[in-house]
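New to this. Comment on this protein:
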Amino acid sequence: MSDRQLVLLDHDGGVDDYLATMLLLTYEHVDVLGIVVTPADCFINSAVGATRKILDLMGRADLTVAQSTVRGVHPFPRENRRDSVCIDHFPNLNEHDTVRTPLAAETGQQFLVQRLRAAERPVTLLVTGPLTNLAFALDTAPEVAAKIERLVWMGGALNVPGNVRDSEHDGSAEWNVYWDAPAARRVWDSTIPIVLCPLDITNNVPLTSDFIGRLGRQRRFPISDLAGHCYALVSHQPYYFWDVLTTAYLGIPDIFQTRECETELVATGLSQGRTQVRPGGRRLTAMATVDTARFYDYMLEQWAR
């Protein structure tokens, strides 16, 4: 049996989602089964376009991108989503007249179900956005749960404040959960093994001027150049390696320390989307600490390929 990981990626079109996609495609030990784009932290047409162009740039037009049509309970603010339009118009993604990477005929949520059903062995589902597509899969084709070896998800805030700022919320939730808390609760109620990358760990891995400078000094590599432009787009604000750190767990897990914990996910009310440690709750593995120096070095190495 092959020791290569089968990975299906579901991202939601934020800047770090494209960077996570670029990192995943550098992994020689991974077979990517396809990419689903969720209309959450993006404008979906631009996000799908940017994703397909990134695959073209990296020589991976053999993969298929699928556009999800799910909707969340709490949409991301428009100002958060407009970065997808900027990236879709980056010059280094628009050197050619046509895009070679195919777009699936079916919706992203249907594509997810089909790829899981067809998988010859268990799949790692890497999700860097909300869990709405997975909840759809569990509701419409519950048998696919047996095909998921583990869910690796950027989501939640266990022992730190959330990043949702809404007058109708208490601030305890992280956005990927808050976008569709009932969907996340559906996944919590399943038996799928969960490896969580929460704000507790990502808060310790910020985007720094030093990192951007080091990345700029290797811009002769096309992926480093693209990553540098992406980071420049968000460098005016506090920014963290949310989705990229989650993806790095698949490539270099030995730089992480994890812990097992029992959790509760709140699906309704002023705390909806909150993920908290609760004895007797849903058991999962949480990324707890990371060797940040090794992580930054690793990112530069991978994008210099």
Q: What stands out?
A: The mean pLDDT is 96. The radius of gyration is 18 Å. Residues 135 and 186 are 6 Å apart (CA to CA).
